[in-house]
Amino acid sequence: MRQGDVASPVLSPDAARPATAWALSDGKAGDELQCVAVIEALGLTPEIRRVAPRAPWAWLAPRGPVDPADAPDRTGSPIAGAFPDLLVASGRRAIPYVRAVRRLSGGRTFTVILKNPRTGAGTADFIWAPEHDPLRGPNVLATLTGPHRLSPQRLAAARSAPPRPLAEALPGGDGPRVAVLVGGDSRRHRFTAAAIDNFCARLADLAATGAFLMITTSRRTPPALARAVRDLTARHGGYLWDGAGENPYPAMMALADAVVVTTDSTNMIGEAAVTGRPVLTFSPGPDDRKTRFLLGGLRRRGVVHEFTGKLAGDAYPPLNSTPIIADAIMRAYAQAHAPRATLASPRN
Length: 348
Fold this sequence. Notes:
Blueprint: E1 21-25, H1 29-41, E2 47-50, H2 57-60, E3 86-90, H3 95-104, E4 110-114, E5 126-130, E6 140-143, H4 152-160, H5 164-169, E7 177-181, H6 193-208, E8 212-216, H7 223-236, E9 239-240, H8 249-255, E10 258-262, H9 266-272, E11 279-282, H10 289-300, E12 304-306, H11 322-336
Parallel strand pairs: 1-2, 1-3, 3-4, 4-5, 5-6, 7-8, 7-10, 8-9, 10-11, 11-12
């Protein structure tokens, strides 16, 4: 399955629907938030479950067994208690636990894995994979962007009632408002001193045009980059979230006329695409294959443009894969729980 291939049929009112759901991961923010986003899009409240297998079981994941200390009958096990109707998991170390729940529940728990489990499409009942990944199968849905929590409803609510510090900082004029999503070092990217200077110089050029910058950093932002954007805000004005109080991220995205985002996070790029506003990308170094694939697909849709220090691009229909993924899961769940037709015994 690929995004947009099949129109979503309307489920009958009596179609089976899950009532309980676990979001299972090792606690990495990106993995856990994607699980939570999908479950919330299904109208459910996720129960957060986090795995932390010891060595050598952590090294053996995803193909190895569950850490024996995490058996469901052990105190503190992440898979203890009544199994849920739906389990949504992400991350290599969570995969053995998905297999265990699927087996121990006798297949009653419908299992979903976000991203390629590296153990084949048969590992779960349903798998979402980004389009750059080669995994395909009748139970696999591939979309260009991943799931996230920035629904149109959440953006609308944030736009109408932004946190007070952000609302008070907004200028009264008609200049463009630009959300700036600053990531940080990752396995593939490093913000060198030259990259930091280059990025901040482009932001300064944009601020000089009259744009109001609404900046947020991430937990991965290195200290040198954090200091540089703080100094930039002090010199050119704008708003920088310091991590205190209510997170203004949804409001910044909702209020933005454009979004600047660093390419070290494909999740942030995908979230920016839901705004329908031009997304301007800055690469601190060479992008990896999956990032190049994502940027190429978004560029062809008129979503992303290279950030050169000026605004570029036009509005476009917001790109949001989360409801597509949630709808596909619901249809697969309903199909898996549909009454089985039985053959009548032949009469003599």
